[in-house]
Amino acid sequence: MLDKFNREINYLRISLTDKCNLRCIYCMPEEGLPLKQHKDIMRYEQIVLIVKEAARLGINKIRLTGGEPLIKKDIEFLIEKLAAIKEIKELCLTTNGVLLAEKAKILKQAGLTSINISLDTLQPEKYREITRGGDLADVLKGIDQAINEGFKIKLNMVVLKDKNEDEIDDMRNFCQNKNIKLQLINHFNLTNNKNDEYFFDRPPKCKQCNRIRLLSDGVLKPCLHSETEYKVNYDNIRESLEKAILSKPEKGSSCNSRKMFEIGG
Which of 38, 59, 101, 261 is close enough to 142 for a disulfide, judged by CB 3.0 to 4.6 Å? Predict the structure, then answer.
């Protein structure tokens, strides 16, 4: 389906949870988050219904995000259901990689096609500092296991000023040796106006944006850098999706109503 600016919207990012097992300094609050009630979080059955309707509108790529999606119980059952939707050509997941070593095989069997792994440094102490306690070894094991399972893999490196800028070449070499792709991400704040002249790979320029977002509380967000949201009407999912696509702005501005961990990037 085309939006009002003739962009083909064929990509839906789905945040399964705003919870995470890390506390990265640029994303999660150190003290964690208040628990949402179970009734406020989408059930897998609801997600499948939304994706089926989205596929009829031309969505052919799905990305599961968080928070950290691998902390969700029985996530492989959701992946199996989504992989069975014939219009979906790419079924992807973004993870911090901490739980990936133990889950990579079952994710592959369920039908997941590609994985983006968040990794901002190859130095164990710096990794522990950035993530507020994470163990780099867990992520490296997850990367190797995902490679062994034959996943298409990208490493997402958030470039932090005066923190890890000097590691870009090391990260490139690491990815080249592993035969995986490096994706450099500009560190940005949602409360600032969208900058379309970033130096690195992400976020994309607005004129090339082909995505909308579905948040864990059942809200459709047409643009990361906007406060416009629509609660999904399960009696008319198609109308909710069409409304979100047609309200996607030509250019992002800012968002003060949500934090990044709620949206999934």
Answer: 101
Number of domains in the chain: 1
Question: Is the whole model's pTM more than 0.85, yes or no?
Answer: yes
Whole-Å CA distances, 148 to 101, 104, 141, 174: 10, 9, 11, 16
Tokens 């990037």 locate to: 265
Residue 1 belongs to some domain of the structure: no
Q: Is residue 194 part of a domain?
A: yes
Phi and psi angles of residue 166, each rounded to the nearest 5 degrees, phi first:
-75, 0
* CATH code of the domain covering residue 164: 3.20.20.70
Question: Can you read off the two tokens belonging to residue 113?
Answer: 């096609």
Residue 240 lies in a domain: yes
Residue pLDDT tens, the chain, 265 long: 999 999 999 999 999 998 999 999 998 877 777 767 777 899 999 999 999 999 999 999 999 999 999 999 999 999 999 999 999 999 999 999 999 999 999 999 999 999 999 999 999 999 999 999 999 999 999 999 999 999 999 999 999 998 999 999 999 999 999 999 999 999 888 888 888 877 888 888 999 999 999 999 999 999 999 999 999 999 999 999 999 999 999 999 998 888 788 888 7
**Residue 3 forms part of a structural domain:** no
- The residues pairing with 120 across neighbouring beta strands, listed in sequence order, are none
